[in-house]
Amino acid sequence: MQELAVIDLEAEKKEILKRYRGLLRACRRTMEKGDKLLIRKAFDIALEAHKNMRRKSGEPYIYHPIAVAHTCAEEIGLGTTSVVCALLHDVVEDTELTLEDIRVLFGEKEAKIIDGLTKISGVFDQGSSQQAENFRKMLLTLSDDVRVILIKLADRLHNMRTLDSMKHDKQLKIASETLYLYAPLAHRLGLNAIKSELEDLGLKYTEPESYREIQQHLKEAEPERKKFISKFIVPIKEILEEQGIKFSIIGRPKSIYSINNKIKTKGVTFENIFDLFAIRIIIDSPPENEKSDCWRVYSIVTDFYHPSPERLRDWISTPKANGYESLHATVMGPEGKWVEVQIRTVRMDELAEKGYAAHWKYKDSGTESQLDDWIRKIREILESPEENAMEFLDDFKLNLFAEEIFVFTPKGEIKTLPINSTALDFAFDIHSKIGEKCIGAKVNHKLVPLSYKLKSGDQVEVLTSNKQTPKEDWLGYVVTARAKSKIKNALKEERRKVAEDGRELLERKFNHLKIDFSASNINDLANYFKLPNSQELFYRVAMHNIDLKHLKDFRQEHGKIVHKSGSLKKEDNSQSLEQMVVTARGKADMLVIGENLEKIDYKLSPCCNPIPGDDVFGFVTINEGIKIHRINCPNAIQLLSNYAYRVVKAKWTSPELISFLAGIKITGIDEVGLVNNITKIISNELNVNMRSISFDTNDGTFEGTVMVFVHDTHHLTELMKKLKTVNGVFSVTRMDSQ
Ligand code: MN
Predict the structure, then answer these.
(1) Residue 396, in any domain of the structure
(2) How far apart are the CA of 178 and the centre of ligand 1, in A?
(3) How many angstroms does the Cα of residue 388 sit away from the middle of ligand 1?
(4) CA of 68 to the centre of ligand 1 (A)
(5) Residues tagged active-site
(6) Within this chain, do residues 39 and 125 fall inside the same structural domain, yes or no?
(7) pTM of the entire structure?
(8) Which residues pair with 602 in a beta bridge?
(9) Of 601, 627, 652, at which residue does a domain stop?
(10) Which of 179, 319, 422, 517 could be bridged to 510 by S-S, CB 3.0 to 4.6 A?
């Protein structure tokens, strides 16, 4: 036995060195004199510091920092400083080494980056507001040194790639966070390759069944796809070669995540998604000819295949805010199939895959300033005081995903805004003072209101008045996180002033009733009216939402304020929430649905309608007891990643006794007798009771909804399988909500 272990260690040592040499090879492109020594030094220190540690999988810990450094160099294109920091990214947190050691051994820059990495490592480990606050800190480092975020993304990517060895609940939590924050962040930084991989891996753990199913389908369809692509590119290749254009063509399937999204949002089956893959033509073109060369290729492609006019996207003339440049066209290929063709240069392709880091390599490109602009804006939003970090996070996330429009200032300067931005968003984008004083705008020389939705190409002139102040309903007019946060701050300031008046009013009343105007009495009163804080109490008093006459019913006893009906009970929500979590978890650390029913107040959440057999979890709500959600509920990711401490593991007891309501959506061609056939199948199915059925027909197609009572998922799947066999039925899917 002893001997075996020794041999193992030797093999491991060899493997570590092999991986280290692989890292050096990946660094070669950016390495300068002396860099190799630095990397070696960092590697030796990390190796020594982690020498007795192993990962959950049993592998030596050092595999992890090497892999993270490798991703930084190879997939993001970062340089030596980042590679050094990636190798050392876990030492300050997990080993004896301190930041001071790093500063002495390497320098100020390295110490700062590792400090940033150590601080954000706990982003999700605390309660929800703390998480959001930490996330804000993480984004703040973006403009200090964006490398912190890039290394963090590489770290997350490796953790996702090795997630198999974690426990199931940990997997869910990490995968949810990844989908909730890290993938959108990678997207915004233009790291498309990493974004797609994070999304696919996230899906693999949050919706394992869908993931496997699509993966299987893609594999089966591969030979045919390859045949189709080679047939498609034959004539194009010939002309490109004839014209002496250097090029490469790849045909790659869309990501599993994006296919799954399409199935969900469009309600189609895998077989009915036509754009399963895109063909990418990458040309080698000098900077001055890039644009004309790409359009030349477009013209060659459309000589053979007819383009769809609505689906031409030109991100070369106006790149996306994350720097993405490319020309996309959808053309009618052989066999009557639509094919997406992406045309771009080598430089554009590298930019699309490696994002921010590639910007450094092509410093002259105009897109760099756009990204800088974005980072500057984030910093501004982050630095403005905002009480509710969660709310901020949601606004911010919306902006990460939003599609963009391009509009112009009166001087012809171009501005990028999220889709659905209004004249008011535009005003705040120019300057917060302009936003606050905005009374309307002229769009293409026509007068429009604040709430006017802008379109790409609009020219906007903001009209202001010194008498104007931000209003509550403005929050409904804007979509950008920046405008929302500025308006909220201005309103809060206004509220604060009103509350000051309320405070004086209340103090006079207290004096009159001979009640001490003490913090604890004020708090008790706020609690009595179920208000979150004294500020809100003062505000309502000032606004006469709380009638001071009611205060006659209060008096003071033993220095404490009491109501004539008895003493004021303090209601502490957070306490009872914690207790609820403990009760729900019970002895087995798990909520068994259907068992301790009497004791625990739980509901099946209407947003996803779970039924026995579904993978589920319990979520402790503030006012409505525990809600049971499906793991693949549309709201699950948000709940699991932000409120992990309120999540309770749950499983079903034997289900025979109870029936659950489930919804099925059916689409197809409207044929005579079809509804009859469908209802016949349902009523013939043992133990299925139909609650409601409704059908909409439109131009020969129909869409139907059937609500049935079933025992479990197995039961439901059986029924759905049978429904699929009905003539004319096109798709049968389970609905998330009623
Ligand atoms: Mn790590």
Answers:
(1) no
(2) 14
(3) 29
(4) 8
(5) 93-94
(6) yes
(7) 0.62
(8) 626
(9) 652
(10) 517
